[in-house]
Amino acid sequence: MILSQIDTLLIGGPKDFRSDGTKSAMARDPVDHPVMLRKLGFEGDQVADPTVHGGIDKAVHFYPAEHYPKWIAHFAAQDMAHSLLEKAGAFGENISASGLTEEKVRIGDRYRIGKALVEISQGRQPCWKIDHHFSVLGLSALVIKTGRCGGYFRVIEEGEVAPADQIVQVEQAPHDWTIQHVFHLLIGGGHRSPDAATELKALRDLSTLAESWRGRAAKLLR
């Protein structure tokens, strides 16, 4: 069972993102006080484009703190440094914490965070906004290649969450579908494997997987 703790709790809303009027909520700000977590996310937290972000299955975005040194090392190898990586929130997460890496957590795992009960629903599929946010072309593709995607919680029981609250796993899903495995299959190209059909059928029918990703599994089967 996983026992972790919130390193940083971040809340934000849509801000100007590009000169064409595009907005993004990726630049969230750390908070130092308890926040109520509702079914659709933290009070005061908003998304810019609800057609692809937010909703029941994407209520809370978490990102493993362990990935930051890896990204810093990657940029250093390119003789680059990036100020966004100096603090949590660079990937638009609501919760930065250690111990929730993609190879450990499973779809359907449940955690008590403060007074709220949450469940892992899917990984986070990166898009062009990560490239623009970092001003690095191809970064989203590298996220896919490395599998450092982070993930989403859906909210089972609403409750107050405070910075530094423990993240306590209270139930482990009765299968081996980690975020890493699911992400590779649905987003990272694993569906091209000759024996992928059986796995795609299993994901299509996995009730705790986000509805949109179950639909993606069904579409890849076709």
UniProtKB/TrEMBL annotation:
InterPro entries: Benzoxazolinone_Detox_Enz, MoCF_Sase_C, Pyrv_Knase-like_insert_dom_sf. GO terms for molecular function: catalytic activity; molybdenum ion binding; pyridoxal phosphate binding. It comes from the Bacteria. PROSITE patterns: MOSC. Residues 29-170 form the MOSC domain. PANTHER family: PROTEIN YIIM. This is MOSC domain-containing protein.
